[in-house]
From TrEMBL:
It comes from Salvia divinorum. Belongs to the PMEI family. Residues 27-179 form the Pectinesterase inhibitor domain. Coiled coil: none annotated. This is Invertase inhibitor. Keywords: Disulfide bond, Signal. InterPro entries: Invertase/methylesterase_inhib, Pectinesterase_inhib_dom, Pla_a_1-like.
Length: 188
């Protein structure tokens, strides 16, 4: 049995389609990269790598506009807050917490429980183009993460089991604030 080699026109079409795919992929991620670079340059609370990875993880990010990136960031914040609340609930079920640590976890649970509808309200305001109101809500969620972490810091020798989650919530909130600000000022 003899194998046929692909025709030159098939090969050319294949190579052309690969190069278009590569070009589209790089131009689509170019918006994420340039947006994250601008946000990281403007805010010490946003790290470029975290920003790019977070936005690129969303399925719709490859074809999103700047407005779409804001939606993605706000959704990422909602997912983070919801997941952190669930994580805290699981931690509270464990035995052996010292009273102060258990109190801090309870406070954090309440903060994150309140943050879920707050981030939903931020999305509603954003969709209504009420950017200042959306920013107030996003800032409130960031404050919840900071307040949670600070509660542990106030205790002698109490180590927060939520440090990374609180830092992520804060940074995603900062990303959402920043990209909403770009849209509001017309720079995005």
């Amino acid at each position: 049995m003899k194998l046929k080699s692909p025709s030159s026109s098939t090969t050319i079409i294949f190579i052309f389609s690969i190069s278009i795919t590569i070009h589209l992929s790089s131009s689509e991620s170019l918006l994420i990269n340039s947006t994250c670079k601008a946000m990281a340059a403007d805010s010490p609370n946003i790290k470029y790598g975290f920003c790019a990875t977070s936005l690129q993880a969303a399925p719709a990010s490859s074809c999103a506009s700047t407005r779409g990136l804001a939606t993605i960031a706000i959704r990422a914040l909602r997912y983070n807050v919801t997941d952190t609340r669930c994580f805290i609930k699981q931690l509270l079920r464990r035995r052996g917490w010292e009273p102060y640590a258990k109190q801090c976890l309870g406070d954090c649970f309440d903060l994150y429980s309140d943050a879920i509808p707050t981030v939903r309200q931020a999305m509603k305001y954003y969709n209504e183009r009420r950017f200042d109101d959306a920013n107030v809500q996003l800032s409130s969620v960031m404050d919840a993460a900071t307040t949670c972490e600070d509660g542990f810091a106030d205790g002698d020798g109490v180590v927060s089991p939520l440090t990374k989650r609180n830092a992520d919530a804060f940074q995603i909130g900062a990303m959402a604030l920043s990209v909403v600000g770009m849209i509001r000022t017309g720079s995005g």
